[in-house]
Amino acid sequence: MDAGERLLYTDRSLHGNKPPLPPIVCERDKIALKEVQNYIKTELQKVGCTTPGPDDRRYWIYSTAFSKLISKVTVYKDILSDIKREYEDCIAALKTGQREAKFLQVKIKTLSSLPTTVNGYQRRQKELENRLSILNSENQRLENTLNELLKIGEEDNSSTGDVDNINVEDSVAMTTKTEKFEKRPIPGLPVIDWTNEKTLKSAVENLNSVIEELGKQKKTLYVPKEKRDEMLQEFKEKMKEKEQLAIDCAKLKKRHKLLKMANEAAREYKELALHRKGGSLSDYILKKVTNYSMKRESSLLIDSPHAGFEDDDPSREKEAEMILEYIEKFNELFYDGEYANAATHAAISPRGVLRAMETFLRFKEVSINYVGTPTPLFMFAEAFMYSSSAQNHFADEEMSYECVNCALNENRPDMVLHWVTQGCIKSCKAVADRLCEYAESCTQNKDSCLAAAQKMYSETSGCKILAASLLYKIGQVAGMLDYTHVEKFTRETYFELLKQCMDENLVWILSRTTPDEYSASDDSASGQSERYISYQSPLPIPLSHSLIHLIQVGDDGKILAVQLLDQIYNGQKVEKVGDSDDSPLTASDLSKVIYEDGQDAYDNNDLVKRRWKAIAKECENQDKFELAMDIHAAIVVRNTISKALSVIAEDEKEQFDYYT
Questions:
Q1: pLDDT digit string (tens) for 521-534?
Q2: At 75, which helix (H) or strand (E)?
Q3: What are 576's strand-pairing partners?
Q4: How far from each other are the two terminal CA atoms of the chain, in whole angstroms?
Q5: Pick from 298, 317, 339: which residue ends a domain?
């Protein structure tokens, strides 16, 4: 009888069949029980398994807690340990069974797919057998062909009595060599792709494309050395022909000059009537021609003392050969990838033979897929511009635009500004337009790019309006007015400027600026104001005329015109009161502006009245009824004042006529 049975027997003997009393729990057991419960709760929260259910982590937590509980008791430790061990063995057996079941399921699936695998291997076997049969038949065909060729060679050798007959050993060696050549690995392909038909086809296509490209390069990039010698000889012949033509031309010019002198001498002889004095015409002509020849020879000796040795210069004979060698050196540097050296070499080429658009296009082509900065195209553009001033071979409009476009694409506006300052770029509209386009996208260098573009516009014919509009856009209003006066803008030209800028402030400036005010703003010490004395400026432009022009431009012009009138109506525009520089600024009044509008020799009162009525109608169309009413009232006031002034003038005239 073990300890558990003895304890149960003793309990029954003491109490009989009565239910046992609840156990008396001591303080030590309470503490132990509380520790175990806290341990279980804490561990479950750590691993995140608070929800009841089958889980290995919960199992290990409760197993550990059970072990701790067993360690706390003394009487039931053995039986509880046995119970725990039995449970663990049972659970381990269940887990082992699950693992074996999974393994058996995988094995069953593998066995079930075995027939499919066998069928696949059988099909692969048939495919390889078919390929093997094809290869055997091809080998047999090649062997038959080789035997036939050997027989034909033996027959030819036997018929001609040639000693060098092909024996069996040579045929075997040839066959072995052929087989060895055919069995060597394919370069660039792994072994696994040797039997892949698609990979082999793509490799053949690549090889064909490489062969085709090499053939094109052979035809276009390389020529035989004999061709170079022929070209050199032809070049020398052309140079000799050119020298002979130059000599003939000099002789003809000399003869023409002598004949001209003889003709002039004959006319002079006739006018002076020298034949009456006893002198003959031939002697007079001979004397004039002799004097001219002596003067010419003395001047030639003074101006060019070494002219007689120019034809004997050996460098002229080698010039053609040097140019060809220079071009060959450039091609070598270019195809070796030394683009920086090639660009410098082309930029400083003799006679500028490589400073052409064809060279630029070659650098542009290789720069498309070039990785890195700067690109070969920018290298050539930089070298081209730096060598322009040194060789006096300045770029034309097309080359200037391409170089500037390349530099701006590389985000190097500083280089473009340097070229413009040094005068390496030819001023043209295309370059200026490209600078304006870049200035819109790059705010950091906007002012400098616009200033350079304005300089090019001002130096290009037909771009004066664009130059003036750029001056206004960069805030140089005084400079814009100075430029328009220098270029003698007419009223129509100012209207084109308004159309280009479309700004209400410019309309206000042109309508309030007078030539006197503008001349006073200039530096009197520089003498710039003197040039306006002889030129009648069209400023100020009547405000009604400018507004009518804006309304005729389109919807944007109509909105701009009404917006300017609204600003004047609300007192947002200011002007000087008086002619001095210290005159105060006051808000402009619409009635005053309308009254003072057109008070010059260009427009009469009726024309100004019709303009303001059209402007008022446009204000009504844009729902500016108060503004339109104010304009109509100002027109009535203007007409009334004009009539009153005309009546007063007539009365004064009558009084003057009466007293005189």
A1: 444 333 333 333 33
A2: none
A3: 585
A4: 169
A5: 298
